TrEMBL record:
Keyword Zinc-finger (UniProt): no
Family: Belongs to the AhpD family.
Domain Carboxymuconolactone decarboxylase-like: 96-164
Active site: C131 (proton donor), C134 (cysteine sulfenic acid (-soh) intermediate)
EC nos: 1.11.1.28
One GO molecular-function entry: disulfide oxidoreductase activity
GO biological process: cell redox homeostasis; response to oxidative stress
Principal EC category: oxidoreductase
Protein name, as recorded: Alkyl hydroperoxide reductase AhpD
Disulfide bond annotation, renumbered to this chain: C131-C134
Keywords, comma-separated and alphabetical: Antioxidant, Disulfide bond, Oxidoreductase, Peroxidase, Redox-active center
Amino acid sequence: MSIDSLKEALPEYARDIKLNLSTLAGEELLTEQQKWGAFLSCALAGGNEFVIQALHAEASARLGPDALNAAKAAAAIMAMNNVYYKFTGMIENAEYRTMPARLRMNVIANPGVDKLDFELWSLAVSAVNGCQFCVNAHEPILIKGGLSKEQVQTAVRIAAVVTAASCVLNGEAALQGASAIVASAA
């Protein structure tokens, strides 16, 4: 599997998603590690099995084992953090925002790759998961660390397109399943 197999799996109505996948795969604003770590972590956050497998195969050809593991860790830790911090932002009782999270987040301090790359992937996954608090926590670290706003935007563009691919393939699978149910009920 590869990004080409992912593009082939997308239906014609998702042509823009296919074109954006091609554009982003060739993007040069990010390092290869930043780019493919973002692709993989966002695929994991999106949860579609085909997208995950295709982008894992593509990332595996470009990243070392430490970077692959760190991209997976970014998706995992942000899945937890995004739920927790979205809650603290949603709830009217401000006391929750002053309470310590009391959740282990050791991987953020020692991700096994350049910390800026891990922060970039964490921001991209937070965008996928819709956590305003986490996006606003990671972006200043990236800018202070030397990334440009265009580089941050590129990671979020990857997040958007990978999420769209997951959405399309999840929808197609649901429609096929629904068609099978309707056919068997007839």
